[in-house]
Specification:
- It comes from Halanaerobium congolense.
- One of its GO terms (biological process) is aromatic amino acid family biosynthetic process.
- Keywords: Transferase.
- By secondary structure, the protein is an alpha/beta fold.
- Helix content is about 40%, strand content about 15%.
- The chain contains nine helices and ten strands.
- Strands 3-4-5-6-7-8-9-10 form an eight-stranded parallel barrel, surrounded by six helices. Strands 1-2 form a two-stranded antiparallel sheet.
- The radius of gyration is 17 Å and the shape is globular.
- The mean pLDDT is about 95.
- Bound molecules: phosphoenolpyruvate and manganese (II) ion.
- Phosphoenolpyruvate binds next to loops.
């Protein structure tokens, strides 16, 4: 179902109000790793909207490596995302980790994110396949291209064909970066599949200084969009501060992406 043999035109996810993923434009999803409080998410939403982003990201249910780390605000975080959407008009993407939270996440999200750790949670993939809600499926920590596409097949096989793929780096022997961003997977998957492919240079590198150059590269290889973590005060972030862009750097990135996409 993911392949060009099944469908010959590129999949465009239409979120309404002119916001699309997979269309002619590079779609920007930006926001904090986690929704932390009302001020933080509203301030970030205003900043990314003004800079040209179309979709607000922010985790309310967080898959943290340590159980002692901030786990997210849960439904309260989702409500804050909805408030930010109401004020700015941004669409909202947020992670769903558990079948038990499908109803509550669907109530607030425009796109459901399935994180790297759940890419092969087949029970969860089957359940979201039954929904009428776009899904962004992040590449698993160590997933091959085939495994990633087969995970998308799990969703589509249940009827939900509104699937976006997101390259977020894979684990290698490298220690200097959090993951190794696999830029080649973007054109490769686009050659194999009609589904849109987004790049996440924030989790792909884990270092804010690398986010801008790798995002530029992702745009240049033809990504359908970029997801990037932005925080008004990265030093105080409750998660992923070291890979979060400050507002000024996000604006700089947006200008540079404009220059790349208009020259392509
Ligand atoms: C995220 O985008 O917030 C996230 C947890 O990413 P990943 O699943 O790629 O690690
Ligand atoms: Mn994060």
């Amino acid at each position: 179902l993911t392949s060009w043999n099944f469908k010959q035109d590129k999949t465009v996810i239409d979120l309404g109000d002119g916001v699309k993923v997979g269309g002619d434009e590079l779609t920007i999803m930006a926001g904090p790793c986690s929704v932390e409080n009302k001020e933080q998410i509203l301030e970030t939403a205003r900043i990314v909207k003004a800079a040209g982003a179309k979709i607000l990201r922010g985790g309310a249910f967080k898959p943290r490596t340590s159980p002692y780390s901030f786990q997210g605000l849960g439904e309260e975080g989702l409500m804050l995302l909805a408030e930010a959407r109401a004020e700015t008009g941004l669409k909202v993407i947020t992670e769903l980790m558990d079948i038990a939270h499908i109803d509550v996440v669907c109530k607030y999200a425009d796109i459901i994110q399935i994180g790297a750790r759940n890419m092969q949670n087949y029970a969860l993939l089957k359940e979201i396949g039954k929904l009428d809600k776009p899904v962004m499926l992040k590449r698993g920590m160590a997933a091959t291209i085939k495994e990633w596409l087969l995970a998308a097949e799990y969703v589509m096989n249940e009827g939900n064909h509104n699937v976006i793929l997101c390259e977020r780096g894979v684990r290698t022997f490298g220690e200097e970066t959090r993951n190794t961003m696999d830029l080649s997977s973007i054109p490769l998957v686009q050659q194999l599949s009609h589904l849109p492919v987004i790049a996440d240079p924030s989790h792909g590198t884990g270092r804010w200084e690398l986010v801008i150059p790798v995002a530029r590269a992702a745009a240049a290889v033809g990504a359908d969009g970029i997801m990037v973590e932005v925080h008004p005060h990265p030093k105080n972030a409750l998660s992923d501060g070291p890979q979060s862009l400050k507002p000024a750097n996000f604006r700089l990135l947006m200008d540079e992406l404009d220059a790349i996409t208009t020259s392509l």
